[in-house]
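Protein modeling request. Please complete all fields; requests missing the sequence field cannot be processed.
Requester role: graduate student
Desired output: 3D structure, C-alpha cell encoding
Chains: 1
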Amino acid sequence: MRDAIARALVRILRILLPARGRHAATPATVPELDTPPTTPPAARRQWTGPSSAQARAIFRAKEAQALTPEQRERWWATAFAEIGVDYDFPTLNITPVREVAA
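Delivered output (102 residues):
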C-alpha cells in the first residue's frame, strides 16, 4: 500500500512542479540552415601539393641515387622547390626501430 501511495504522490508532483536540474526539458536550439559554411569542407578543397607522379619522379630520380644521404635530401628539397612545394619532411633524423638480423 505504501508503494502505491508513494507512486501516486510522485506522479502528482511531477505534473504540478516544473522540471529542474540537468535533465530539465529545454527547447533545443536549431541552427540556421540558410547561412552558407564559412570554409569549404576538406574533401572539396583543391589539392595544392604535387601529384603522386611528380613526387615519385623526384624520389626515384637516377641522378639522386648516387648521392650521399645528406646530398640526396638537399637534392629532393631543391627539386620540390623548383615546382613550388616546401619540402618539410626531412628523412635524415629517422632512426630505425628494429635492427634486422641477417
